[in-house]
Amino acid sequence: MPAGAKTGAETGAETGAETGADVGPDGVRLLVVGARGQLGTDLVAGARAAGTAVLGVGSRELDVTDQAAVQAGLGYLAAQAAEAGQRGVVINAAAYTAVDDAETDRAAAFAVNSDGPANLAEAARRLGLGLIHVSTDYVFPGDGTEPYRPDDPTGPRSVYGASKLAGEQRVLAAHPDAHVVRTAWVWGATGGNFVKTIARLAATRPTLKVVDDQRGTPTYTVDLAAGLLELAGRTVPGGVLHLTNAGETTWFGFARAILTELGEDPDRVGPTTTAEFPRPAPRPAYSVLSGAAWTSAGLTPLRPWRDALAAGFAATPDAFRVPAGG
């Protein structure tokens, strides 16, 4: 891979066959950007398990804010795909996600969440590559009362949300055939997230208070990755789609479910309000996303969030449990 776009291991196992408009594992070669994060890790693992050729890069191997490095990195993917007779697709899971820090670090948030995706989109279009860019529920104002559809009016109330919306707009302006996939309340075995925070607090405190006036859908990275990989192998018109696990709850309800999976008494969790826990960046009160456009495109909907939580604990229990004395 060219200088400025180094890589780790690549798998080239290829199985399956093309059927209709779908492209099987042997027809796609993937580049996962942000491969060390909680979603990126599961994207690479899921692709390898499916026998899809995949290259995973983190920020140390590919700085998305560096146009030259992006061009070189995507050029490498395009060349490898062409040589193998495959279709190259970039999945961008890289993001500045420190929601509160972004309020005072606007330049960094916009560099990674807006400039970076724009660089990827421009290079992908020039090189004839597909692009899937992962975005967020924070692009909406959060004052809705029914699940947001992809074409509903946006209106971010935080710098983070504004930076992600700018990234969406620049991706589609530069590469109209690209896909922007919004998701919400992501958790998984890698990195820090709400599930791990609740598990840690439950190990050290007799009771917990969690906000009960913010509503959304917890989304398991293994399931989200599977959906994105399905999209990468399909022929679907470009644009915005939403993808989360099914159903909805509040952070309070989510925390109670986590304690249940830990084998603890969920009544140790009590409800509170957002007003009692002010944060630098405002949180959306309502973040439920409609998956209707996803299923209408012939893509597989994700299972209910509660089933996914149980599956996550069963698959990687040590990732979510605090060791005794830890």
What keyword list fits this structure?
two-stranded parallel ribbon, 37% helix, 7-stranded mixed beta sheet, alpha/beta, 16% strand, 326 residues, single chain, Rossmann fold, disordered N terminus
What does this structure look like?
This protein has one domain: 3-Layer(aba) Sandwich (Rossmann fold), CATH 3.40.50.720. Helix 1 crosses helix 6, helix 2 packs parallel to helix 3 and helix 3 runs parallel beside helix 4. A 7-stranded mixed sheet has the order 1-3-2-4-5-6-11, sandwiched between helices. Strands 7-10 form a two-stranded parallel ribbon. The N terminus is likely disordered. 37% of the residues lie in helices and 16% in strands. Helix 1 links the parallel strand 2 and strand 3. By secondary structure, the chain is of the alpha/beta class. The chain has 10 helices and 13 strands.
Topology:
Layout (H helix, E strand, L loop, with lengths): L9 E2 L16 E6 L4 H12 L3 E5 L9 H18 L2 E6 L13 H22 L2 E7 L22 H16 L4 E5 L2 E2 L6 H9 L5 E4 L3 E2 L2 E2 H12 L6 E4 L6 E2 H11 L7 E4 L19 H5 L8 H11 L1 H4 L6
Parallel strand pairs: 2-3, 2-4, 4-5, 5-6, 6-11, 7-10, 8-13
Antiparallel strand pairs: 1-3, 9-12
Helix pairs in contact: 1-6, 2-3, 3-4, 5-7
Fold-level CATH name: Rossmann fold
Neighbour order of strands in the largest sheet = 1-3-2-4-5-6-11
Helix content: 25-40%
Terminal residue distance: 41 Å
**Nearest-integer average pLDDT:** 92
How would you summarize what this structure contains?
With 326 residues, the chain is α/β, with parallel strands linked by helices. 37% of the residues lie in helices and 16% in strands. The chain has a single domain, classed as Rossmann fold, CATH 3.40.50.
